[in-house]
Amino acid sequence: MEEYLTEQELRLLNPQIIQDMIQKEIPISVTVYHLTPEMKHYLQKIVVTVLHQIRQDAMTDYIVYCLAELIDNSQRANAKRIYFHEQHLDIFNPKDYDCGMETFKTDFITNQSHYQGCQEEHGLSMTMTLLVKEESLYMEVANNTKLTVFEYKRIHDRITRALESQNPAQIFSHTNEQEGAGLGFNSITLMLQKFGNPDENLKFIAQEDFTDIRI
Length: 215
Known about the structure:
By secondary structure, the chain is of the alpha+beta class. The protein contains ten helices and five strands; from the N terminus they run ααβααααββααααββ.
């Protein structure tokens, strides 16, 4: 995997550099334009290194799983904007949105490599940030895109339902076939229940020029 990485990216796999950033409470941040399998693996290795440095290896599987779900959500959001652009549809127009979403899921699944390869061309990126501060680990995945009102309502509804659900059967009963499997935020909620109250651990922030999910 290392042959795909720049010198700056390789630095974040160095345990000593990570330890220094943790001690100084410096955010560990990586911006990605091409969400290839190799890049996903790289981001996961950074998380593993951070958890090892703070002696929280037992959390690795759960946190890596949450990261994978957030990355997939980010990739899908960026791909959607490329798809609508290529279909000459306005993603903020209700009729165009409904029209595009009728075929987006299928086209995304069959053409993921295309959407991975042209995100930078469209100015779309994903940023993962880790911060260890006051004995807490903060992780966020942000897109440099503005949410539509339809997406905002869907994400808010998913998170709210997942947080209100009392058991796994309830959590996984809330899916959205139009968007995809719809299990991402539900799965994350289950993982976070291992560490305490999800209400305190999962945050959704939508601003004019970015969308951010924080754990």
